Every structure is written in C-alpha cells, then in structure tokens.
Amino acid sequence: MHVVPSVIEIEENDGMEQLAERWLADRDHLRAVAYRMLGSASEADDAVQEAWIRVSRADTSEVENLRGWLTTVVARVCLDMLRSRKSRREDALDGHAERVGEGDPEAELALADSVGVALLIVLETLPPAERVAFVLHDLFDVSFDEIARIVDRSEVAARQLASRARRRVQGAPRPDDAAIARQRAVVEAFVAAARGGSIDALLAVLDPDVVLRADRAAVPAGAETEARGAEVVARRASQARARHGTLAVVDGAVGIVVAPRGVLRGVLTFTFAHDRITSVEVIADPERLRALDISVLPA
C-alpha cells in the first residue's frame, strides 16, 4: 500500500525530499480542504492519501506555487469522489449511516464543530461542481481560473457555480420575522413533545386532520408512507424521537433537518394554519434533499 511518507522515508529518498517535506507541511491544510468538500473525516483522509499517490508520480519541476498545485490535486480527487458518491445506486439512509458511523465519532464531531454544522448541512445539498467551486473560492481563496480547470468549465461558468452555491449557503429570502417566530414556536413545541414522548403535548400542536407523508427512502421497506389524523401522527412522532434534529428554514418555512455531525440524512417540512401543524413531510431521498433551500436557524 502506498502511504504518505514518514520523516524516516523522506530522509531515505533524497529525490523526493523537497516534495515530501512540503507535503507534510501542507497536509493539515489539504485535509481541511478535503473535509469541507466531503463532510467526512475518513473520506477526507482517503482523498489526501489518493492525492499523495498522484503527487508522488508527477513531475513538479515546473510548478511555481506548490501549495496551490497540491490543493488542486486534492480538489480533483474530492470532485471524483463526490461524483462517484452521487452516481452510486445505494439507499440514501444506509449510505449516510455508513459515513457517519465510520472512524472516531468524537474526532468527527470536533471537525464538524470547527467547520460549522450548519455550513456542512447546506454543502451536503450542493451538486459536486458547485460544492467544489464554493469551497475552493469562498473558503480557500482559489482563483476562478484554477477552479475552471478543476471542474472542466469556463472561468465564467466556474463563477456561476460558486455564485449559485453561495446563494444556497446564504439561504433564500425569508418570510417576515413574525411568521418565522410563530412557526418556530410551534416546531419547537413539536420537537420537545416528540422527544419527551408526550402524546398530549403533540396533540396540542397538531391539527386534528394533520397528514404525515414520507418518501420511500425515509421509511423501512414495506412500511406505510402516509398517516392521517392527529392521534396517529402523534404516535408516529413520539416513537421516532429524533436526536439529531436541528431547526432550519426549509424552502421558506421552519422545518427540521436531521444531520448527525453535519451529514444530512433527512428533512421534515411543515405547513401551518392557526399556529398548528397541518401537514408533515419527511424527505430522505438524496435528489430531493439536494433540491431543498436550507438555511439553519441560530440556536
């Protein structure tokens, strides 16, 4: 297995000394780039490892900005991984659960906190090229000329990718603050009641004719995807008791994102009438998640 060189290996291979020393000096930066693009510490390590394999085989004699060049190599590896992840035909929940569960959970959580869980949640909804363009330009100040070569687009197109991503990260214009505040109070009461398993408290915030709908990716095989009536929906909600729910504005209304350690696994959207919930939709299908406009609310 080809591994990132140790100090001993550097000393034993004079031909690779300069490149390997620079690689070691920039490895934390490169891992930070990979983590922001991939949202997974173990995948970031894999990306950095693969990038070293490519770097060690390349001719760097004419590279003027070595750190910038190393960053672009890691970015290309991450873009390949994001595209591969998107194209794999796998169940959305199973795939995300595997990514969340691997490695050291405490280390993963520390990394997520350092980046910002809210940012990771929104980045998870972006197409691969948009995510790469935004991360490289807005977070690491890589030029659009270089980004264009990485994503195989024109410089103008690269700017457009970053601009679209930036609008998603910043969030769509919200309804007036009073409407958001009312919705937030209702959803917070719903979350507290669901986590506490209180049917009575749930009935207090649910419309008698409330409807709950879930897409196929959000429920076990063979399970019902629809429930009607406050008592039925209250029982379903009390049994779920999601521990990783975060309040967010989803397509202009207050909802809940389920994103343990910043990995987006599902979203609950709500409709409201007279300060009660009239419908709940549970979304876990990755294509539908990517289409949502999510802006996480401050605590």
From TrEMBL:
This protein's assembly is summarised as:
Interacts transiently with the RNA polymerase catalytic core formed by RpoA, RpoB, RpoC and RpoZ (2 alpha, 1 beta, 1 beta' and 1 omega subunit) to form the RNA polymerase holoenzyme that can initiate transcription.
| Name of the protein this chain belongs to | Putative RNA polymerase sigma factor
Q: Which GO terms describe its molecular function?
A: DNA binding; sigma factor activity
In terms of Pfam families, this protein maps to: Sigma70_r2, Sigma70_r4_2
Species per Swiss-Prot/TrEMBL record = Sandaracinus amylolyticus
Name the InterPro entries on file: ECF_Sigma-70_Domain, NTF2-like_dom_sf, RNA_pol_sigma-70_dom, RNA_pol_sigma70_r2, RNA_pol_sigma70_r4_t2, RNA_pol_sigma_r2, RNA_pol_sigma_r3/r4-like, WH-like_DNA-bd_sf
Q: What Gene3D superfamilies does the record point to?
A: 1.10.1740.10, 3.10.450.50, Winged helix-like DNA-binding domain superfamily/Winged helix DNA-binding domain
Q: Which residues form the RNA polymerase sigma factor 70 region 4 type domain?
A: 122-168
Alphabetized PANTHER family for the sequence: ECF RNA POLYMERASE SIGMA FACTOR SIGI-RELATED, SIGMA 19 FACTOR
- Cross-referenced NCBIfam families: sigma70-ECF (TIGR02937)
Q: Which domain of life is it from?
A: Bacteria
